[in-house]
Task: inverse folding
């Protein structure tokens, strides 16, 4: 009797392992970008991204459909940021330039989380300096908050003792790769160098 129970237990374990293998391998097979992914999102990539309505550098209202019409690298920051944002945006611009040299086009996008100060004109000056194709987006506080929520980013204006025009904004620092028809596919932390970022993005572009 004990031997029978042992055999049945072994069969159950084998069956369970087989089921896990089929499920996990099946998911990998269905994901054409599996070999490119270096990060994981709780709940899946579908938890990040979505519709938004913002204002571009010319003052025109645009939607996510207008913006993500080609592979797009999105960053949330603000032009008055003293150090982090300029560095991250410049790193993104460098990665995009590396890809351009390989014949791969990615649109760099900078979404302001400081709509009080970041006018379309202010954004144009900032993005034009970093890359000729970088697109700056702003909007009403409500529009910016909705876009930030869609991409699960964080930002919070800090009080200032130097007057209303001099304040910092705490914010998250991820960059998001989004593809037309696919949406969000990968995020990049700020410690990744431009060449490595370009390599990973290139993998996604090759798999499209």
Result:
């Amino acid at each position: 009797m004990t031997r029978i129970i042992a055999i049945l237990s072994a069969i159950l374990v084998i069956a369970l392992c087989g089921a896990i293998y089929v499920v996990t391998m099946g998911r990998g097979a269905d994901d054409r970008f599996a070999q490119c992914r270096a990060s994981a999102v709780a709940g899946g990539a579908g938890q990040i991204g979505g519709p938004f309505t913002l204002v571009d550098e010319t003052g025109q209202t645009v939607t996510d459909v207008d913006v993500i019409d080609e592979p797009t690298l999105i960053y949330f920051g603000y032009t008055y940021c003293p150090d982090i944002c300029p560095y991250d945006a410049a790193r993104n611009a460098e990665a995009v330039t590396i890809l351009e040299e390989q014949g791969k086009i990615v649109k760099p996008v900078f979404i302001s989380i400081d709509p009080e100060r970041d006018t379309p004109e202010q954004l144009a000056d900032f993005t034009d300096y970093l890359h000729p194709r970088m697109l700056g987006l702003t909007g009403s506080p409500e529009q910016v908050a909705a876009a930030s929520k869609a991409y699960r980013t964080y930002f919070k204006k800090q009080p200032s003792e130097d007057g209303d025009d001099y304040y910092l904004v705490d914010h998250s620092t991820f960059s998001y790769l989004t593809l037309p028809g696919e949406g969000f596919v990968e995020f990049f932390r700020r410690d990744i160098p431009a060449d490595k970022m370009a390599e990973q993005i290139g993998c996604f572009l090759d798999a499209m």
User: Anything to note?
Assistant: The helical segments are 2-30, 64-67, 84-101, 120-130, 141-150, 194-207.
